[in-house]
Amino acid sequence: MRKLISFMHISLDGFVGGPNGEMDWINVDADIFDYAGQMTGNSDMALYGRKTFEMMEGYWPTAGDQPDASKHDIEHSTWYNKVPKIVISNTLVGKSLKNVTVLNKDFAKKINALKKEEGQNIVIFGSPGATHALMQDNLVDGYWLFVNPVILGKGIQFFANFKDRVNLKLVESHAFNSGVVGLHYEVIQN
User: Fold this and answer.
1) Is the pTM above the cut of 0.70?
2) Whole-angstrom Cα distance, residue 183 to residue 27?
3) What is the pLDDT of residues 9-32, one digit of tens each?
4) What sections of 68-106 are H helices per DSSP?
5) Coil, strand, or helix at residue 109?
6) E strand segments, 50-163
7) C-alpha distances in angstroms, 97 versus 82, 87, 101?
8) Residue-wise pLDDT tens digits, 120-145
9) What is the domain range of residue 8?
10) What is d(CA 9, CA 6) in angstroms, rounded to the nearest whole number?
11) Per-residue DSSP letters for 34-66?
12) Which residues contact 33 (CB under 8 A, 6 or more apart)?
């Protein structure tokens, strides 16, 4: 069975974007990219909300082909182009996209079916809106949170509007030289 894992940069006070979705506060470096590459190496499917998918689709398909491409650009571009992508969207329905399945109605039922298939993890990069919807249906099995050393004060909250408590188990933690702390939690199923 597959696990659905959320990969998210988060501020110390629990925000995943500034008031207008800004992400200029996120610290990334080669060390974090190498660490994240281990996670994608254990994943064979990606899941996105529409906004994040459009941002990813605008960069990753050709990022590894650029003359100044970094090691991370080459590796992640190769992975991105290889894996099937699931996008939760109402506006992309009916569009023909290479290696992409668009879900809108009954997405929880379809994601649950995908999780029951044989394969590696399904990873959600960013996509706070899609992740919130999946969290409400108890479909997220784990979180890779990259806690950035910043307090935003306001913005897009990651853990907001839950109807029930979710218990987590810390599986791994890693402090990066940039001051970011990576925390890997598994959801404890009751």
Assistant:
1) yes
2) 15
3) 999 999 999 999 899 999 988 889
4) 71-82
5) helix
6) 85-88, 100-103, 121-125, 142-148, 156-157
7) 14, 10, 8
8) 999 998 888 888 888 888 899 999 99
9) 4-187
10) 10
11) HHHHHHHHTEEEEEEEHHHHHHHHTTHHHHTTS
12) 70, 71, 72, 76
C-alpha span between 37 and 9 (Å, rounded): 15
Helical packing angle, 30-41 and 71-82, nearest 10°? 20
Q: Beta strand pairing status for 142-148 and 181-187?
A: antiparallel
Tokens of 99: 């290696």
Q: Is the pLDDT of residue 161 over 90?
A: no
pLDDT at position 106 is 84
Please name the residue that has the structure tokens 């990651």: 158
Say which CATH number the domain at 155 has: 3.40.430.10
For residue 116, give the H/E element and its range: helix 107-116
Task: For residues 113 and 91, give the distance between their C-alpha atoms in angstroms, rounded to a whole number.
Answer: 23
H or E stretch at 120:
none
Q: What total of structural domains would you count in the chain?
A: 1
